[in-house]
Specification:
alpha+beta, Umud Fragment, subunit A, seven-stranded antiparallel beta sheet, 11 strands, 30% strand
């Protein structure tokens, strides 16, 4: 009988140890996933049609939250930021950066520091008309616009945004797979 009890106790200890290992693995995975989401990569669902056809409503994307911790925002980057007027996050293209002067014309042209820019990413069939305006981009500011210019609430309406409101750069569309 004592030998049987010893074997039962050994088996119970082995099962308990194995259970503990699974708990530790699950906790480590949960903590790692949480830290990655908070500090490195964040899933994001595109809320508006402002970036069509590049990004469609409901596209699920990954935002790299470290992109601008070690580098600076460049013209043309697709950035995720906290909306200055609404309690939601948006994704738009950085058109002008700190120190730039952007001019929009009623003919649908954009000039950065006096030079006309070519935007190959815009839909070809879209007729764009802007209100004539010139904006000097201040220190640590951005001028952002959606690619779907006729259906985008962006810096033309709410002004420049502080770089501090940018929380990352678009890395990849991960859902739906047909949009990869």
């Amino acid at each position: 009988m004592p030998l049987e009890n010893k074997q039962v106790n050994t088996r119970k200890r082995k099962i308990f140890r194995e259970f503990l290992i699974y708990i530790i693995i699950a906790l480590t995975a949960a903590i790692s996933a949480t830290l990655i989401r908070i500090y490195i990569l964040e899933p994001f669902i595109v809320p508006t049609p402002s970036m069509e056809p590049m990004l469609e409503i409901g596209d699920k994307v990954i935002i790299n939250k470290l992109a601008y911790k070690f580098g600076s925002i460049k013209r043309g980057d697709i950035v995720a930021f906290h909306s200055p007027l609404e309690k939601k996050d948006l994704v738009k293209r950085a058109i002008a950066i700190e120190g730039d002067e952007i001019t929009l014309t009623t003919e649908g042209e954009i000039f950065i520091n006096g030079e006309k820019i070519v935007e190959n990413y815009l839909p070809a069939d879209q007729d764009i008309f802007y209100i004539n305006q010139t904006v000097a981009i201040g220190e640590n500011e951005l001028f952002v616009m959606g690619d779907n210019r006729n259906n985008s609430f962006d810096s033309r309406f709410f002004g420049t945004i502080p770089e501090d409101d940018v929380f990352g750069e678009l890395v990849i569309i991960y859902w739906p797979p047909s949009r990869w």
